[in-house]
Amino acid sequence: MQTNRKCTWTAACIFITLLLSAGVAVGQQPNSLVVSANGEGSIKFGKESFKIYAVVVKLFEDNKAEISLVTDITVFVNGMWSRQDDTSTEIALKITGGSMNGTLDGGGKLLLTPDRKAIAGLNLQVMNQTTKKIIKADFVAKK
Fold it and tell me: Are 70 and 52 within 8 A, CB to CB?
């Protein structure tokens, strides 16, 4: 009978440990994320301005970011991302390039919805190193 008690006790400990670790795993946020939104905004290239209709952002596990701004033209920007903690809805962006890597330098913020499954807003300010022009983008998602 003692062997059965030991087996039962061991099985109960393993079961409780699995339940506790499953709760921890559910609370963690994924390290990569793809979010998008339709909305309204603008992007300014020097004196030229275009309306932004949609934004798609891909955040990868290695902290690389790809941003697509859908306007009359589609603008692709890449860089790095970071956030203070897994529950934060604000993500800091460091822009390092566009269609030609190394030509852009700047940063901005990606704002997520409270459930962190969609974009609430986006602000970018970067400088084109080739032309020395400032590029500003502001976007707010439709609710």
Answer: yes
| E strand spans, 46-118 | 48-59, 64-70, 74-82, 90-97, 101-112
How many domains does one find in the chain?
2
Number of H helices, E strands in the chain: 1, 8
* Token couple for 57: 């952002």
pTM here is 0.74
52 and 63 assigned to the same domain: yes
For 14, the domain range is 1-30
CA distance 96 to 134: 14
pLDDT tens digits, 66-124: 999 999 888 899 999 999 887 889 999 999 887 556 688 999 999 999 998 999 999 99
How far apart are alpha carbons 85 and 72 in whole angstroms?
Answer: 35
77: domain CATH number is: 2.40.128
What three-state secondary structure class fits 10?
A: helix
